[in-house]
Design goal:
The chain is mainly β. It has one domain: Peptide methionine sulfoxide reductase (Metal Binding Protein, Guanine Nucleotide Exchange Factor, Chain A, Beta Complex). It is built from two helices and nine strands. It has a six-stranded antiparallel sheet with strand order 3-4-8-7-6-5. It has a three-stranded antiparallel sheet with strand order 2-1-9, with no helix packed on it. A hairpin with a 2-residue loop joins strand 5 and strand 6. The longest helix has 9 residues. The radius of gyration is 14 Å and the shape is globular. The protein starts with 11 loop residues before the first helix and ends with a strand.
Length: 137
């Protein structure tokens, strides 16, 4: 987790008790669920995707697309301030951009640019299903 102070403070013990072990590991330790195993990878349900740790709205189903990568993919978050982007050098020498919930700092996934998908932003927000909750609208 970042040293930054986030607007929503998460009680770690309460979160650990409220979510499954994989969700906790992804949200708090930047782990990754296995590809093609997530609940939202192929869903087309209409709704909003919220942070599993703090319920902040992150993505809308209208921006979700099928990338074939094995994780839910979006071409944009709900707003620029819904997420925080952090340089990720954990796979050095490859540099990636980590996506976190801007409200509570929970790890969500990564964003990739310039891959050529036919989407308005040419971005693929590759997000772990276990880091989100889909709420019908």
């Amino acid at each position: 987790m970042s040293e930054r102070e986030y607007p929503v403070q998460i009680n770690e013990e309460e979160l650990k008790a409220a979510v499954d072990a994989l969700s906790y590991d992804v949200l708090r330790n930047a782990a990754t669920e296995r590809p093609f195993t997530g609940e939202y990878t192929d869903t087309d349900k209409v709704g909003v995707y919220k942070c599993k740790a703090c319920s902040s709205v992150l993505f809308k189903s209208q921006t979700k697309f099928h990338s074939g990568c094995g994780w839910p993919s979006f071409y944009a978050p709900t707003s620029d301030d819904a997420v925080e982007l952090i340089e990720d050098r954990s796979l050095f020498p490859r540099v990636r951009t980590e996506v976190r919930c801007a409200a509570c700092g929970s790890h969500l996934g990564h964003v990739f640019k310039g891959e050529g998908y036919d989407v308005p932003t040419d971005e693929r927000w590759c997000i772990n299903s276990v880091s989100m909750i889909l709420e019908d609208i």
